[in-house]
Amino acid sequence: MERQEIVLVGAPVEEGAGRKGCVMGPDAYRTAGLAVTLEALGHAVKDLGNLKPAQTGNVRAPNGTVKNFAAYAGWTRVLHAQAAALGSKNVFPIYLGGDHSIAAGTVSGQAKAAAERNRPLFVLWLDAHSDFHTLDSTASGNLHGTPLAFVAGMPGFDGLLGQALAHPVTPQNIEVMGVRSIDDPERALLLDQGVGVSDMRRIDEEGIPAILSAFLNRVKAANGLLHVSLDVDFLDPEIAPAVGTTVPGGTTFREAHLVMEMLHDSGLVSSLDLVELNPFLDERGKTARLMVDLAGSLFGRRVFDRPTRSF
């Protein structure tokens, strides 16, 4: 197994979510042993600590329903700059959220770096939700439901970066997996843009290996880089309760590990988000430990290497 230079970046963002608590997420991953787990697998780990949002002044969203847009813009700008810088180096960034709004910055920054290397960026969005609302379509105003639309170049996000999004991710290079809650405006946009969507029924019928292998083959054929964005609610809330947007019927422990093991075997993943962990809602840290275990599988931990643990 190839040794990786892993860089941890904390993004204690909760302004995009509908309830407080995600601000504690990055430190919960640290407490749950993320660095120790990765180092035990032979990787080098450097922790850059927690970022702080950029100052954006009095930037406003066109839709008055939108909440905390200035904070969203501040976090997007600092994360975009950090991801663009890390994406140009021979390192593997792991972005510790924070709610899923962090992906507006992490994915757009990784896309910029990929473009500068003349390689396309692909995105695997592991989530119960598609997060493909625009600022005009969101009814809740919670901005963690908008980052994928932004990075795919959908209109209406003027002011978020303070400049035009120069390197959007091609919508057809995005695969949303595990989804089981899509609003009507998102559904129309996803179909119109040709985003890949594998809901839980498709996973039940076809199985993860067939679906994920097809996507990974496309990434490999295009010589692409792959960003994985893992939301806690990709998992069933019975095994991962520490999330403010629980949706029944998520992936099982083994299904989630299979995804990570296949991603490791592919050798295609170049960056990772771990998002929506709300430790305030956890049960004795079991969700944080599970997310750390999944990261371990992505970086080469095999089933028979996994320690016995009672959750």
From TrEMBL:
Key words of the record: Arginine metabolism, Hydrolase, Manganese, Metal-binding
Family, as annotated: Belongs to the arginase family.
Swiss-Prot/TrEMBL cofactor(s): Mn(2+)
Catalyzed reactions per annotation: L-arginine + H2O = urea + L-ornithine
Repeat as UniProt keyword: no
Superkingdom, taxonomy of origin: Bacteria
EC identifiers of the protein: 3.5.3.1
CDD domains: Arginase
Cofactor comment text: Binds 2 manganese ions per subunit.
InterPro entries: Arginase, Ureohydrolase, Ureohydrolase_dom_sf, Ureohydrolase_Mn_BS
Protein name: Arginase
Pathway terms, separated by semicolons: Nitrogen metabolism; urea cycle; L-ornithine and urea from L-arginine: step 1/1
